[in-house]
Amino acid sequence: MAFHFPKPTPEQSTTTADAGLADSHHHERPRGLMRWVLTTSHKEIGSLYLIFSLTMFFIGGIFALVVRAELFQPGLQLVEPEFFNQMTTMHGLIMVFGAVMPAFVGLANWMVPLQIGAPDMALPRLNNFSFWLLPVAFTLLLSTLFMPGGAPNFGWTFYAPLSTTYAPPSTTFFILSLHLAGISSILGAINIIATILNLRAPGMRMMDMPLFVWTWLITAFLLIAVMPVLAGVITMMLMDINFGTSFFSAAGGGDPVLFQHLFWFFGHPEVYILILPAFGIVSAIIPTFARKRLFGYASMVYATASIAILSFLVWAHHMFVVGLPLVAELFFMYATMLIAVPTGVKVFNWITTLFRGSITFEPPMLFALAFVVLFTIGGFSGLMLAIAPADFQYHDTYFVVAHFHYVLVPGAVFAIMAAVYYWLPKWTGHYPHERLSQVHFWLSVIGVNLTFFPMHFSGLAGMPRRIPDYALQFADFNMVSSLGALLYGASQLVFVLVIVMCVRGGKKAPAKAWEGAEDLEWSVPSPAPLHTFETPPNFERPVH
Amino acid sequence: MTQPNRDDHGAKKGVRRTVVRTVAALAGMFAFAFALVPLYDVFCEVTGINGKTNSSAQAVIHEEVDESRMITVQFITRGSSGLPWELDVESRQVRVHPGQTNEVNFTFHNRSDNSSWGRAVPSVSPSNASLHLRKVTCFCFEEQHLQPGERIEAPLVFQLTRDLPPEIKTVTLVYTLYPVAHKNEPLQAQVTIGKGDEA
């Protein structure tokens, strides 16, 4: 797509402001930086989200490496304990709100309109706004590192009163940045729901939608339900800190435990927000490379919805040691275990899809298969943590760290990488370099497991999390973890190399880049032109 | 909304409807987060979870004293930063029968040179005992005002009801002292230390 419009002079563009609005329909587009600042194309905004997310992934990753470097040996050697606390906190906040969530929103921006045959998102300008809130939010968050008193140091869960009475002065900035990131997610969710419900190609029923669209629809509803609760909690914190209220202060009649209830009422659905779109991605990739239809499409949809509903009934399993009455411990234990049923349905459906398929191992498939295996390991350690009496031993140890990193790194992050490899041919028109992709995959798999598997053992042996020093008996496990983290972190440079090479050139990809890929996005040329599905495609239901 | 609609007018209407509904849901959830604060207190009070006791006096239930059981009632008193007071109890532990009315005296002592307002906030453990603990008189129902160096005695009159679950052998009452900024706003926290003398 080449544009041969004369570049407007500044005078022209100011005097013809009104005409410029009308011109936007005639493909007169700002160039250079302003092209990206003002864009309303779902594809460009999707790319912006993904680039932002990758940047945050590296920043959060560097913070994680600071933590792992300090923990390489027992004793305090590299950083002050106060700075260590800031690193663990910022690592968690950046990875959850800055890397994983925007990556999924970016993928939704790119792929949801293409998969349902829509010309763009339903609210393109809102889409631009929700993206540009993010750089502001995270610049603000990162700037707290340079403030007197340092960055937030109370863990990404920011429990009161650590985050209120005993918090550094920068906490107010942290609250503001989280508000901005939250508004961004909410606006993104509204946009995705409006797009999916109203802009499907004629003939496409809800139960014809690809699973990535389904899982994102359900995720967007989760966002609508819980992001306002997060906004409420941090607003209460803001008032406790600055306006003398006592929501979470026992001295004034409040209750710190209330903070934990409110936080986890948001926090547990939040962890499904981080994983449900990953389920959708894997459900797209496995059938493609097994060259079979996805087994149990309807059960996948119902399983996703069940997981989303159950996620509102299990929040207190994060609080087993807070002094809950026995009946609450039992309720939350059984409700949590119940989630293993729909999750198990999904895992078995993926395995059944693979069964007797003609499988090939292209890079997206490698990551998707690793996802199934490693995410399931994280699911099992989650089941162990769900057992309330056992959780008294595991609580706040490295076992918990191992668990949630297994579901988030080889879970959510591997799924995002699988999605990037899967859809790069559609985005750039080139296949990613296969050999380098394989190098990236194997280094990542080895790095992830070296990093997080030993944490199960150090955690079971009692090593507490979020402490910059540890007893001597944990030295070997920690050294392995730190070396693994360095390997995993360094191997992501290969990922960047593959992406840059793929954008610049490589083996040309046809419209249908993968032999077994059936969804609507493969009917548009590769790379996808700026405008697609201006006239709605005719959706034809696959014959069963 | 199961029928996809791609004529421009219909789609626009549909988008507007979706946006209105999601924004309404958002506002509802934001309000719900704040509604959870009083709901949480009500829930704890009704179920007795969290060891919260009644904050106003209750009448004695005249019932036969259960001579077959002895319950140990322990008292723990704690000060807090920001209030230079001491709270003492005449005996750290009493043995009582369910149904019996008991009186225990507590002593408040202001160790500073300023007069100040304070309040002792109770908590009961195990929490399911809190529904069976009836307080007839308690200093914890109201705020105390102490002159510099003043010492006052305040009684706690309580009763454990006969339907106290049989597995409970010991009930612990914890009283924590908190500063109060103004007498008329009992739940207002005192944010800065040392302001209590203005009342």
Architecture (CATH level 2) name of chain A: Up-down Bundle
Helical fraction of chain A: 55-70%
Number of domains of chain A: 1
Q: How many distinct helices of chain B? A: 1
Number of β-strand runs of chain B: 9
Rounded to the nearest angstrom, the distance between the terminal CA atoms of chain A is 38 Å
Biggest interface found: A-B, 48 and 41 residues
**Which structural class should the secondary elements of chain B be placed in?**
alpha+beta
CATH superfamily caption of the largest domain in chain B:
Ctag/Cox11
The run of helices and strands of chain A is HHHHHHHHHHHHHHHHHH
| CATH architectural group of the largest domain in chain B | Sandwich
Strand content of chain B: 25-35%
Global structural class of chain A? mainly alpha
CATH superfamily of chain A: Cytochrome c oxidase-like, subunit I domain
General form of chain A = globular
Low-confidence stretches of chain B: 1-5, 184-199
Task: Round the Cα radius of gyration of chain B to an integer and report it.
Answer: 25 Å
For the record, the CATH class of the largest domain in chain B is Mainly Beta
SSE topology string of chain B: HEEEEEEEEE
Helix percentage of chain B: 10-25%
Explain the overall architecture.
Chain B: The chain crosses the membrane at residues 20-40. The complex is a heterodimer of chains A (544) and B (199). Chain A is mainly α and 544 residues long. Chain A contains 18 helices and no strands. Helix content of chain A is 66%, strand content 0%. In chain A, helix 10 (276-290) packs across helix 14 and helix 16 (398-428) packs parallel to helix 18 (475-504). Mean pLDDT of chain A is 92; it is low at 1-25. Chain B is an alpha+beta fold and 199 residues long. Chain B has 2 domains: 1-47; 53-198, Ctag/Cox11 (Pfam 04442). In chain B, 20% of the residues lie in helices and 33% in strands.
